[in-house]
Amino acid sequence: MESFDVEVEAGMVVLDAIHRIQSTEAPDLAVRWNCKAGKCGSCSAEINGHPGLTCMTRISDFPEEESITVQPMKTFPVIKDLVTDVSWNYEVNKRIAPHQHTKDSDPRMFQEEINRTQEFRKCIECFLCQDVCHVLRDHDLKDEFAGPRFMVRLAGLEMNPLDEGDRLSDIREKHGVGFCNITKCCTTVCPENITITDNAIIPLKERVVDEYYDPLKWIWNKTIGKNFEV
Question: Which of 39, 133, 163, 172 has the most CB atoms in a 10 Å sphere around its CB?
Answer without folding.
Answer: 133
